[in-house]
């Protein structure tokens, strides 16, 4: 089953590991059913699947048959079940259809497949999380999986599909912006300093701080922040108003065009290039979507002999600005990255035992996931059913002429980098200046053949639910407000963005 904006990738693909498929173009079917949810309607759609399970379980009880719900698992490992079931029973199908944009029959078909599946993996990406209530979307996926015990056993569970492997945080290298997640006492002992006890800031708060003039300097390790965040025009101005901007980059990007009062672009080695330090070739750690951490060693000749690694740049800045201390061994850490991993292990001995040895063994090592072991790191020490107070993730209501914008990427795009203008997924060639709309919305708005502004977008018919439109990321970021973000994680919400279509008329010449 697939849910999302339609593209060929949801239905079939040519297996790149099969020589026969690559030579003949033979496709492999990868989904049995495709459900096109209205933007912002994921909660209602998943609640509908849960309702199918509950109704099937009621019928099984009445018939004396095997239960559909995994009651032994629910009783032993969860809390909040009764409240969630009450929500399911009190929500009628008419409401579910209206909020999700799906028919009851379509949801029932998918629910029946789930009810009879022995093992289920809930795979989701940014399309589920980049909403003003994205955390609730994920909570609904968890609710669905918990009903049949599909968390904490082989071949089942949540699988968030994340981006490239060098986006590393607390799980991989022990970095977090929340002070409570960091063992401050160990850091103080290891490095002989008083670490900050207040929380850092999320990307939303950082951008708002720049716009308010409260953040005066930024050091960015990679990325193209000015291009990536919402409110692009305001961000371009705010970024350039800082006293200092430092960007450590593997390649030039748009952020470099808006320098602060003092600005530095520090080119660095990419992960693909050889990183030779005092003790020889170095490796860095990566983590994949399945919690496997492994070492990565660059093989390519560096673009320049003058390039430094990210670590060498950071330690160089630190050495120049921080008072000397016997416990701050900047040169040694630069010369041997294994020493840095030893320090991570010393800070988190339970999570990173034998970090160096296991990172460099073939295939790396499985870092572990507490939920997979049915160890629940919640206040209740159990998995929690979330009972929601709303059936959509919208921070606004529907209104005449208002659409729900979904920003998207093409197949020839990596993050903000656009490699070409051939979107094979959607059959769009030669341009990205388009807004995708369904045929009924185009007719209702009277937009046939007219060019209008984002600026100058061409209306392109596409298979979308009524009221949902699509445009490319990051070009459409200018339409996304920085205050439009997930309330819990502060992730910018690039989905279900409220927009209007305005037709630009030209005076006759």
Explain what you see.
It is a single chain. The chain is α/β, with parallel strands linked by helices and 509 residues long. It folds into three domains: 36-152 and 375-384, Dimethylsulfoxide Reductase, domain 2 (3-Layer(aba) Sandwich), CATH 3.40.228.10; 170-363, Rossmann fold; 402-500, Beta Barrel (Barwin-like endoglucanases), CATH 2.40.40.20. Helices cover 31% and strands 17% of the residues. The chain is built from 18 helices and 26 strands. It has a three-stranded parallel sheet with strand order 8-9-10, with no helix packed on it. The protein has a three-stranded antiparallel sheet with strand order 13-14-15, with no helix packed on it. A three-stranded mixed sheet has the order 25-17-26, with no helix packed on it. Strand 13 and strand 14 (292-296) form a beta hairpin. The termini are far apart. The model is unreliable at 449-453 (pLDDT under 50).
The total count of strands amounts to: 26
CATH hierarchy class name of the largest domain: Alpha Beta
Largest sheet: 3 strands, parallel
- Broad shape: globular
- Return the structural class: alpha/beta
N- to C-terminal distance: 53 Å
List the domain count as a whole number.
Answer: 3
């Amino acid at each position: 089953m697939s849910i999302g904006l339609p593209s060929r990738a949801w239905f079939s693909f040519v297996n790149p590991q099969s020589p026969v498929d690559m030579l003949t173009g033979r496709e492999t079917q990868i989904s049995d059913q495709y459900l096109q949810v209205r933007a912002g309607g994921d909660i209602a759609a998943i609640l509908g699947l849960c309702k199918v399970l509950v109704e099937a379980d009621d019928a099984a009880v009445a018939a004396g048959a095997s239960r559909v719900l995994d009651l032994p698992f629910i009783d032993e490992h969860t809390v909040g079940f009764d409240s969630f079931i009450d929500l399911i029973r009190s929500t009628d199908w008419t409401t579910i259809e209206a909020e999700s944009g799906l028919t009851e029959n379509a949801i029932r078909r998918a629910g029946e497949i789930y009810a009879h599946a022995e093992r289920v993996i809930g795979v989701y990406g940014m399309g589920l999380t980049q909403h003003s209530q994205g955390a609730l979307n994920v909570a609904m996926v968890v609710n669905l999986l918990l009903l049949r015990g599909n968390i904490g056993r082989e071949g089942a569970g949540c699988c968030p599909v994340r981006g490239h492997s060098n986006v590393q945080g607390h799980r991989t290298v022990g970095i977090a912006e929340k002070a409570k997640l960091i063992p401050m006492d160990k850091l103080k002992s290891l490095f002989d300093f008083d670490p900050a006890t207040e929380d850092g800031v999320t990307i939303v708060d950082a951008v708002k701080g720049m716009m308010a003039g409260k953040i005066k300097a930024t050091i960015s390790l990679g990325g193209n922040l000015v291009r990536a965040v919402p409110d692009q025009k305001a961000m371009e101005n705010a970024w350039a108003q800082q006293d200092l901007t430092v960007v450590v980059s593997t390649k030039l990007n748009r952020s470099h065009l808006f320098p602060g009062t003092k600005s530095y672009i520090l080119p660095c080695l990419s992960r693909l290039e050889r990183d030779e330090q005092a003790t020889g070739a170095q490796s860095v750690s990566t983590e994949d979507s399945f919690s496997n951490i492994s070492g990565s060693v660059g093989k390519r000749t560096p673009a320049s002999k003058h390039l430094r690694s990210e670590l060498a740049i950071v330690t160089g800045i630190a050495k120049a600005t921080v008072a000397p201390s016997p416990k701050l061994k900047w040169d040694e850490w630069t010369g041997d990255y294994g020493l840095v991993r030893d320090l991570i292990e010393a800070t988190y001995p339970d999570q990173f035992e034998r970090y160096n040895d296991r990172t460099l063994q073939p295939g790396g090592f499985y870092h572990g996931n507490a939920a997979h072991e049915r160890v629940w790191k919640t206040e209740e020490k159990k998995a929690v059913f979330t009972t929601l107070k709303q059936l959509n993730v919208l921070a606004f209501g529907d209104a005449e002429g208002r659409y729900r914008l979904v920003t998207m990427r093409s197949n020839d795009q990596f993050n903000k980098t656009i490699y070409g203008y051939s979107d094979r997924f959607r059959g769009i060639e030669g341009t990205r200046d388009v807004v995708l709309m369904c045929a009924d919305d185009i007719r209702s708005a009277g937009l046939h053949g007219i060019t209008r502004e984002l600026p100058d977008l061409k209306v392109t018919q596409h298979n979308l639910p009524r009221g949902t439109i699509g445009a490319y990321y990051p070009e459409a970021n200018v339409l996304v407000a920085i205050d439009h973000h997930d309330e819990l994680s502060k992730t910018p919400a690039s989905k279900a963005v409220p927009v209007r279509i305005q037709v630009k008329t030209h005076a006759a010449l």
